[in-house]
Automatic annotation (TrEMBL):
Subunit relationships: Forms a one-to-one complex with cytochrome c.
Domain called Plant heme peroxidase family profile: residue spans: 109-375
Entry-linked SUPFAM superfamilies: Heme-dependent peroxidases
Originating organism: Hortaea werneckii EXF-2000
Reaction(s) catalysed (UniProt annotation): 2 Fe(II)-[cytochrome c] + H2O2 + 2 H(+) = 2 Fe(III)-[cytochrome c] + 2 H2O
Protein keywords: Heme, Iron, Metal-binding, Mitochondrion, Oxidoreductase, Peroxidase, Transit peptide
Region (Disordered) location: 1-52
Biased composition (Polar residues): 12-21
Top-level EC class as recorded in UniProt: oxidoreductase
Protein name as it appears in the record: Peroxidase
InterPro entries reported for this sequence: Ccp1-like, Haem_peroxidase, Haem_peroxidase_sf, Peroxidase_I, Peroxidases_AS, Peroxidases_heam-ligand_BS
Length: 375
């Protein structure tokens, strides 16, 4: 697969298309030395989660039961941590630990190292799917009922883990499992969000401040199906989903820029292909491509999606395309296409908001910190 991947990479690198692509190319690839873009085909994707659904459920329940006795009550400003006896975290005294920023940095470093070590996946990095895990954990939030959100990490369990929208995220959860074993004091909920922040930073994105304090919950807290967006729809649907979480139009557009990263997989969502030529490096190319490329419906047997006319190698979902069809969304797309800096600033802010939706922190906003990216 690696050789096929290299061919694909070369094709992407040398394809002359829009000015956006030409001017961005040197910067883009210079920025991503960690992840040599390598294409692994979706047939290499991990087995669908359905087989592991019940195993996950029982495993998860066992973990909750076993973990029950290992929870330690900390001071009101601290984060309850699990299984402290086996923890390597500093400050462990009589079974009570308070993880410090340095402890979280160790987790970050382990994630960053594993991202580099395990580059034989998809386009050469687990980064995009880690970000998608953090987003899907958070994007179940419902402002009105206060349910859902990243607190709980309930996607570990059926039925949530088996929701159609979460197809393929087992790859990200499995990737993080050895890290959880190495740092048992961190909750899954914090680990998933820390890893999403790490993925963005390691893929050349902006700093994303992280605030710990999420606690894991059991399967009873799984959210109902249907809370995440459906790429086959348009702007009304997007507003319905994101307003429910408390976002506005500008924030919807800023969040969507994540689609500069990663790709669609036919065995996951049914859609196919990457949105950008640099799927493991965050840039504002998503917005540039939306505006500067010509897009037409792809002629194929799969779900309705757009493809770029000039190379036929990129894709846009109907929801992506609605950002330039809607008169309130489009000016924001234009703003981010002009300035990567403005996109990065707003992307960081809106991600902090997304990742903290519904989390009952006992600490204030001043407890956020930026973890240091790898060299
Ligand atoms: C606006 C509504 C959104 C829709 C309809 C949508 C839909 C999708 C779909 C269909 C996929 C392909 C999944 C697959 O086949 O593997 C995908 C992938 C992805 N999405 Fe979104 N998404 C949305 C918003 C977001 C947001 C807010 C983020 C993050 C902030 C995000 C990050 C990603 C990433 C990084 C991938 C690539 C995953 C990979 O390469 O495995 N998406 N999205």
């Amino acid at each position: 697969m690696a050789s096929a991947g290299r061919t694909f990479t070369r094709a992407l690198r040398s394809t002359p298309t829009t000015s956006a692509i030409k001017t961005a190319a040197p910067r883009r690839f210079a920025q991503a030395p960690k992840f040599q873009a390598r294409r692994g085909y979706s047939s290499e994707a991990p087995k669908p989660s359905s087989g592991g659904g019940n195993g996950l459920l029982y495993g998860g329940i066992a973990a909750v039961l076993l973990g029950g006795g290992a929870y330690y009550t900390l001071g009101s400003k601290s984060t309850p941590v699990q299984d402290a006896k086996t923890s390597s975290a500093a400050g462990s005294k009589s079974g009570v630990i308070t993880p410090t920023k340095e402890d979280y940095q160790k987790v970050y470093d382990a994630v960053a190292k594993k991202l580099v070590d395990e580059d034989d996946y998809d386009d050469g990095s687990y980064g995009p799917v880690l970000l998608r895990l953090g987003w899907h954990a958070s994007g179940t939030y419902d402002l009105e009922t206060g349910t859902g959100g990243s607190n709980g990490a309930t996607m570990r369990f059926a039925p949530e883990g088996d929701h159609g929208a979460n197809a393929g995220l087992k790859a990200a959860r499995d990737f993080l499992e050895p890290i959880k074993e190495q740092f048992p004091w961190i909750t899954y909920s914090d680990l998933w969000i820390l890893s999403a922040c790490a993925a963005i930073q390691e893929m050349g994105g902006p700093d994303v401040p992280f605030r710990p304090g999420r606690q894991d919950k059991d399967a009873a807290f799984c959210t109902p199906d249907g809370r995440l967006p459906d790429g086959a729809q348009g702007q009304d649907h997007l507003r319905g989903i994101f307003y429910r979480m408390g976002f506005n139009d500008q924030e919807i557009v800023a969040l969507s820029g994540a689609h500069a990263l990663g790709r669609c997989h036919t065995d996951r969502s049914g859609f196919d292909g990457p949105w950008s030529f640099s799927p493991t490096t965050l840039t504002n190319d998503y917005y540039k491509l939306l505006l500067e490329e010509k897009w037409s419906w792809r002629k194929w047997q799969g779900p309705k999606q757009f493809q770029d006319v000039s190379t036929k190698s990129l894709m846009m979902l109907p929801t992506d395309m609605s950002l330039i069809q809607d008169k309130s969304f489009k000016p924001v797309v234009e703003k981010y296409a002009k300035s990567q800096e403005e996109f990065f600033d707003d992307f960081s802010k809106v991600l902090v908001k997304l990742f903290e939706l519904g989390v009952p922190f006992t600490s204030g906003e001043d407890a956020r910190f930026v973890l240091k990216r790898s060299d």
